[in-house]
Amino acid sequence: MAINLQKGQRIDIGLSKISLGLGWNPHEGTGYDFDLDASAIMIDQNRVIPEEEYFIFYGNTDSPDGALHHSGDDPTGGNSDGGDDETISVDLAKVDGRVNEILFVVTIHEAAARRQNFGQVRDSYIRIVDDMTGQEIAKYELGEDFSIETGVEFGRLYKKDNHWKFEASGLGYREDLAYFLAKYYKGQIIK
After folding, report:
1. Where are the alpha helices (DSSP H) in 76-137?
2. Does any domain span residue 69?
3. Ordered mean pLDDT values, 10 residues apiece, the chain (191 residues)
4. pLDDT number for residue 2
């Protein structure tokens, strides 16, 4: 039976191959499609990305170590009917030794221009699935606390005592995807 996570709750993963599915249902009638983008940020003990390629999003779908794979962009939230719209597959056995934390964030594409925020998005969640059995392990539903935010850190995988754990973060920001890259990457960003 899957665990329904609350903000700040942590669980042991205990598996190597998992998928993190992100889903949402956009509010109707805002005049634009809702293009939510799921991303994964692989960071080291100094909380920075070791190399730019460890920032996984629709424009860079695979990490150099082969540990993460992004399913690709869903520009409308219509990839599924009630299921995951974007998925990030994770093989924890392949994660680069420098990486000890993976953040999962979702941002709204062109949120400022379209005047969109997470308060206009329904049923958003992140869930962890066992890739071997297809069974859902845990799910965190965002709720309605993010009325002005345009970027949300849904959760994070982190290594403690050589074991991977997951925390439902639920941290909201009024920022876009570029903010997260600039926050965790200290090298030159080529656009």
Report:
1. 111-114
2. yes
3. 83 91 74 85 95 93 97 68 84 96 91 85 87 92 80 92 91 90 79 53
4. 72
Question: Which CATH number goes with the domain that contains 86?
Answer: 2.60.60.30
Residue 17 domain flag: yes
Provide the pLDDT for residue 81: 62
Residue 104: the pLDDT is 93
Give the span between the Cα atoms of 86 and 106, in whole angstroms: 10
Per-residue model confidence (pLDDT) at position 25 = 76
Closest by Cα among 161, 151, 157 to 105:
151
- Structural domain that includes position 15: 3-184
pLDDT of residue 115: 85
- Residue 189 inside a domain? The answer is no
Contacts by residues 88-91 (CB-CB < 8 Å, ≥ 24 positions apart): 88/19, 88/20, 88/22, 88/38, 88/40, 88/56, 89/17, 89/18, 89/19, 89/131, 90/17, 90/18, 90/19, 90/20, 90/40, 90/157, 91/16, 91/17, 91/66, 91/67
Contact (CB, 8 A) for 169 and 155: yes
Is 190 within the bounds of a domain? no
Alpha-carbon distance of 138 to 57, in angstroms, equals: 22
Integer Cα distance of 39 and 124 in angstroms: 15
Total domain count for the chain? 1
